[in-house]
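Q: Sequence in, structure out?
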Amino acid sequence: MIQRIQSLYLLVVVGLLITTMCFPMGYFIEENRINEYPFNVLGVSLDGMYHSTLGLFFLLLLSTIVSFFTILLYKKRMLQVRMLVFNSILLVVFYLVFILSYISLKDGGMEFRINWTLCLPLFSMVLNILAICAINHDEALVRAADRLRP
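A: Exactly. Output:
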């Protein structure tokens, strides 16, 4: 199971998504640059009010769970490919929800500084594509071996 390269890709995806859930994705900074408000996947506290973004958290959690259980489907390669495509769609939806959350929370006097963790779901999508290519390569090898058997 773990000796396959796509399983290693998916383990890295799980690690990247857990890291994204643990660290802030960016910071809202006041115009006087005194206060910074971290924007996590759970929400942000601006001007004494807490604005929840639980949708981002649940999208990342679902994507992490899908990635982990896709590793366990190593005998069902075509189902693995479908799950990885679904996972990539979830990550695109994550970015769309992030943009909508950013627009709704953006204040005229605030700047937003992106943190490095916002790039990790993008790297996860790239690793999903690499895993799909590796799974398709395995499937081609299995089909070629089936043609050789009497």
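Helices lie at 5-22, 54-71, 77-105, 120-148.
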